Amino acid sequence: MIINPGDVQGMLARLKITELNELQSASLAAARQDQDLVLLSDTGSGKTLAFLLHILALMDEKTTGTQALVIAPSRELAIQIEQVFKAMGTGFKVTCCYGGHLRETEENNLIEAPALIIGTPGRLADHIRRNNIHPGRIHTLVLDEFDKSLELGFHEEMSFIIGALPSLRKRILTSATSAVEIPAFVGLTNIHTLDFLSGAKTERLSIQLAQSPEKDKIETLFQLMCRIGDRSTVVFCNHRESVERTSTLLKEKGIVNVFYHGALEQAERDSALAKFRNGSSNVLVTTDLAARGLDVPNIRYIIHYQLPSTEEIFIHRNGRTARVEASGTAILILSPEETLPEYIQEIPSPVDLPLTTTLPDKPKWTTLFISAGKKDKINKVDIVGFLSHKGQLKKDDIGLIEVKDFTSFVAIRKSKAGHTLQLIKNEKLKNKKVKIEVAK
Description:
With 440 residues, the chain is of the alpha/beta class. It is built from 15 helices and 18 strands. The model has no long low-confidence stretch (mean pLDDT 91).
């Protein structure tokens, strides 16, 4: 498919972007070359649109069957890529496949083969083995954040998937770091590298240090949260158990927060991220699962409550803030027996912790869970109309709305939540009785 300037401008308008950046233009131009592509660029620089435009330039409107496959290391990243592609309005069918929800739903979506399939390694390999995905005509493969997939141990699944693509002509690998060896099973031969990694990130990112007088750093973290106030913050821990313990202790001290890790059910993960994105919680406590592919704008602070084990993890955690032109701050908390990692060359500036603590302002938003979504023919306009008409909410009382396949989340002013829930408890949404409650 030849993408003309008018097509590109139409897509950008739908994405609410004025023009392609240098990375995206270079990726689109590279589609004319018969070479595999390695795309290196900082987190938040627009890699997703860059490789989707490249894919689109190689797709044929007259060809039936699946033409391109994107493998992502996490469900959240896979879903994010699908959302961008759908928003581009290309006319090509796309399906997203990932663990944590019904495989049968995906099987139904795959009956009429989508032109583009996006998914996580395990679920994609499973569909190929079950003959739900017919890989015979797939000519383009993207391994997005491929180093993360390797880090998570998806070697076997990725090798199997690539081996099942007999017509593969183009491989596109993306990463936010150049310090990764590409395994032989990927099959790269004639490589064209677009390296847009820069040191500009560090100029916008301030790295600071907080010293904890105790081995247990929770009191120092609490003081830090009181100092930061109500600004958007991600607290990184190394293990799931630590995430839940830290979250619980912060709640006991009056800090509103949500937690997020890989052992949660998909509905729990969706709820936690929705609350963090819409401002029902300004604090997210998480593992390194959230270090990549987390689509949350305007994160102001990154706190390394437990130190990252490698420089690469440190870089990716910090990549959640200081995105594009914004600035951000990363803070490491050290206990008395801990020392700065060797890869941090300059000693970070110290953080002055308050002698007396004042709790941050509580969020003004709360999140409603709705037991209906896209597959029930529910959209954002339906939800706004329902809450305005039946729930007597004004436009300013309704915040961010996220509509999933079978569920939806909507932020409303906390002060209005009780009254609104009382008004709508017996009402139907689009003539359907659905469960609406404060999201757990």
